[in-house]
Design brief:
Strand content: 15-25%
Distance between the termini: 44 Å
CATH superfamily of one domain: tricorn interacting facor f3 domain
Strand order of the largest sheet: 5-4-8-2-1-11-13
Radius of gyration: 24 Å
CATH architecture of one domain: Sandwich
Number of helices: 19
Number of strands: 21
Bound molecules: ligand BES, zinc ion
CATH class of one domain: Mainly Beta
Shape: globular
């Protein structure tokens, strides 16, 4: 323990320590403690810890590999004899210590989920460990896209996705969210392309294809990210901008026009934005997520570009991660709700401040519907419906359900309801301030909650039911929406009796349409489905959320046989998991695996998606 203390003190001095408070706190930051043990990493931060990374990389689009060196500054306890890194599907050619001595290295046994531990013996004076390596065709974090898989169809594209445990497939590292490092990078790419990272970024292409990056705030390795493509930059404010392929730039600049306002509102709520710039990159449609909160540059799916700014809650979400997630990070993936639950709560506060309560209640209600569906699917009494998870021996991504997102957000709403908005906002603001650039476990949060909210204001809460209990607690503060209730009435009074005149529907926003589509009875007959499609043209909607909801309903009631081609077009190009999972599982339930397979086959020809290997098998 004594060694650890020295180690932790050193580490925090080197990383980002600006004040004594943090030095003192770091002593508590004991990787050795039980609840801090990360079952998804082989690394040994309690003995030897990486603190800074310098990456020197070459991106080879012909071979579809990245080659290079990862130089790590390390700190260690006195007796430490080795440092352990996480690796998966990497070829390591050489390891050097202190830039001079070539060192031996060994691998631990291969694990399908976690990859392989890389053991490097270290000396008393070792401060720098350099790992020479290349990625492989299996490196799951990387998607290499051919020109025809991009918007402009002229140049290839590459992007990385590190969360949850994929960074180790493109950089050997101590791949635990409980560890923070700063990084610099030098990346060489083909001259016609631009590279961006979760760091300081260029706005124009370089002459020679070489780019230098710096991330001087310490971040967990899952947030190291790279994208390379024919990118152009458009400014959307003094602090914000958009990167996109040239043909997508104008639409993207319009769609995200409110970003800087969101940033200001967020700062007013929970304190200063500590990452300097906030930019967004619009990726090709195979990107497996809606958005990914890579620091300084959110990676986003093009499926939120609806032309009317109706899907930008996603930007509020990724921006909110600049506090919840990137500033204060879940120490392990069992604590994932600390990232996502806080972020959904925060996202809705941003939306409320900008677009009002009525609008935000609709978002929250759609979220509640998702939560109910997930609880139903997982099982009301199942431990996977606890906020605090136990993912030992399982894929870290198994925690990516609406439990973390929506149950987490509704838990915070229940606390807000208990103490009132003013006190709750004070609590959150102080929480972010006191834990910035730190990682937190659920247990540490609970301790903080008890002291700074429950005891302070002398209130009773059922936080244990929310965090360690199953299902949705009875005090879940579900909002009401008149707008949604009137849609429910229309469905009962009209649609069920075959009438299609919905007065007022010309003014519905995307969320009203989504609610409508979700509430259409699953057994609606083919004739009615056809009429609905003719009248509202759902199958050709330019809004991906509406398309996905309509396709799901159509698959469930058999209408899909009439609209196979738009369904196929959508599924062949789009990689967003939130859309694919329900659509493939609906096909599975409709007993049409042949369709699922044929679409997936085409997808494989067009889009390489190692991340979503055979989704209809998994769900
Ligand atoms: N950080 C997540 C994405 C993620 C989670 C990637 C876990 C890998 C593992 C991101 O912030 C997110 O939640 N994205 C959502 C959108 C959001 C508005 C709910 C998505 O991609 O659908
Ligand atoms: Zn998120």
């Amino acid at each position: 323990m004594k060694y650890f203390t020295i180690l932790a003190l050193l580490a925090f001095t080197i990383i980002s320590c600006q004040n004594k408070e943090m030095l003192k706190d770091s002593i508590h930051n004991q990787y050795a403690e039980d609840h801090r043990k990360d079952h998804h990493s082989f690394s040994n931060p309690d003995q030897a810890l990486t603190t800074n990374l310098f990456l020197d990389l070459n991106v080879d689009f012909t071979k579809k590999i990245i080659t290079g060196v990862a130089h790590f500054d390390i700190v260690k306890s006195e007796g430490a004899s080795e440092i352990i890194f996480d690796t998966k599907d990497l070829n390591i050619s050489k390891v050097k210590l202190n830039q001079k001595i070539e060192s031996k290295f060994t691998f631990g046994p291969k694990d399908d989920l976690l990859g392989q531990a890389l053991h490097i013996p270290i000396e008393a004076n070792t401060t720098l460990v350099s790992i020479y390596y290349e990625t492989s065709a299996n490196s799951a974090a990387l998607q290499w896209l051919r020109p025809n898989q991009t918007a402009d169809k002229k140049h290839p594209f590459l992007f990385s996705q590190g969360q949850a445990i994929l960074t180790r497939t493109w950089i050997p590292c101590q791949d635990s969210p409980g560890i923070r490092i700063t990084y610099d990078a030098k990346v060489k790419v083909p001259k016609e392309l631009m590279a961006v990272m979760s760091a300081s970024n260029p706005t124009v292409k370089s002459e020679d294809g070489v780019y230098n990056f710096q991330m001087k705030q310490a971040i967990p390795p899952y947030l190291i990210a790279l994208a390379v493509g024919d990118l152009a930059f458009g400014s959307i404010g003094t602090q914000c901008g958009v990167y996109a392929e040239p043909s997508m730039l104008e639409a993207s600049v319009y769609e995200f026009g409110d970003t800087e306002k969101m940033l200001k509102v967020a700062e007013d709520l929970y304190g200063p934005y500590l990452w300097e710039r906030y930019d967004i990159i619009v990726l090709p449609p195979s990107f497996p997520f809606g958005g990914m909160e890579n620091p300084r540059i959110t990676f986003a799916t093009p499926t939120i570009i609806a032309g009317d700014r109706s899907l930008t809650a996603l930007i509020a979400h990724e921006l909110a991660h600049s506090w919840s997630g990137n500033l204060v990070t879940n120490a392990t993936w069992d604590d994932f709700w600390l990232n996502e639950g806080f972020t959904v709560y925060f996202e809705r506060r941003i939306m409320e401040a900008l677009y009002g309560k009525e609008y935000t209640d609709m978002l929250a209600l759609l979220g509640f519907q998702d939560l109910e569906a997930d609880v139903q699917h997982i099982g009301h009494n199942h431990a996977d419906t606890h906020l605090k998870l136990n993912l030992k021996g399982r894929d870290a991504d198994d925690g990516m359900t609406d439990i973390a997102y929506e149950k987490g957000a509704y838990f915070l709403m229940s606390l807000e309801e208990k103490v009132g908005r003013e006190k709750f906002d004070d609590f959150l603001k102080t929480y972010f301030e006191e834990h910035k650039f730190k990682t937190l476990t659920t247990e540490e949060f609970v301790e903080y909650l008890e002291e700074k909210l429950i005891d302070k204001y002398n209130v009773e809460t059922n936080y244990k039911d929310w965090i360690y209990g199953a299902g949705i607690p009875a005090n879940c503060p579900i909002p009401k929406s008149d707008k949604f209730s009137s849609i429910d009435l229309l469905i009962n009074r009209k649609l069920k009796n075959g009438y299609l005149e919905f007065k007022g529907s010309e003014n519905w926003n995307t969320h009203q349409w989504l609610h409508f589509l979700r509430k259409i009875p699953k057994n609606t007959n083919q004739e009615m489905m056809k009429k609905l499609d003719e009248k509202f043209n759902f199958s050709n909607s330019g809004n991906a959320e509406i398309l996905a909801a309509w396709f799901e309903l159509s698959i469930k009631n058999g209408y899909y046989k009439n609209i196979k081609s738009p369904i196929e077009d959508f599924l062949v190009s789009v990689g967003r998991r939130k859309f694919l999972t329900p659509l493939y599982s609906a096909m599975k339930e409709a007993d049409d695996l042949a369709l699922a397979r044929s679409i997936y086959q085409k997808k494989q020809n067009q889009i390489i998606m190692p991340y979503l290997f055979k989704p209809w098998m998994r769900y």
